[in-house]
Amino acid sequence: QKEVEQDPGPLSVPEGAIVSLNCTYSNSAFQYFMWYRQYSRKGPELLMYTYSSGNKEDGRFTAQVDKSSKYISLFIRDSQPSDSATYLCAPPSDSNYQLIWGAGTKLIIKP
Amino acid sequence: AAGVIQSPRHLIKEKRETATLKCYPIPRHDTVYWYQQGPGQDPQFLISFYEKMQSDKGSIPDRFSAQQFSDYHSELNMSSLELGDSALYFCASSLSPNTGELFFGEGSRLTVL
Predict the structure, then answer these.
(1) Which residue in the set A44, A92, A103 is minimally distant from B104, CB to CB?
(2) Contacts (Cβ under 8 Å, ≥6 apart) of B39
(3) Domain B5-112 classified CATH 3.40.50.720?
(4) pLDDT band at A53 (very low <50, low <70, confident <90, very high)
(5) CB contact under 8 A, A43 and B104
(6) For B32, which residue in chain A has the nearest alpha carbon?
(7) Is B98 on the interface with A (CB under 8 A)?
(8) Mean pLDDT across the stretch A54-61?
């Protein structure tokens, strides 16, 4: 079992919908959680990160962490075709800060 | 704003040949990472450098080597190339090694024939 699990998708939703992307992890020592977005044939780019349980909002994006259930979510409001990408959750290792990557969820927003 | 620059963007090699990839980190970033990403896979960490010293090692084959130079640019040298080495190779940089905030380059696509 991988330390970080994501449904690879693809997840296909109509434009304007609210998108929920999820990630589970097994190591309770993870202290904070990064969400990276990767467009096809491009490098990952950091979307947002959160340190603690609860919600963090940045524009149309909200990251949510539930440490009691080891569950991470990324919500996208008013989804746009330009949001079509693969979303990877990646908590840094508690020992050496190397990112522990999930497999990524491929998101498709249909116009 | 300056980004991470990688070269070449595309590279085609024959089996058993050698390839060298270059990475120029964002100015003032002292940590460089190399990742390999196959189609539909998450990035696999190869190696990282902090202040020109190797700081961590991942799943880098013995046929590969890397270094960071005095100007902080890094090079990944790959020898005895195999078909399975065909992948996207990303370089990333960060302000320090104790952060998950990495800035990735556009990647170098290596095709081994």
Answers:
(1) A44
(2) none
(3) no
(4) confident
(5) yes
(6) A98
(7) yes
(8) 92
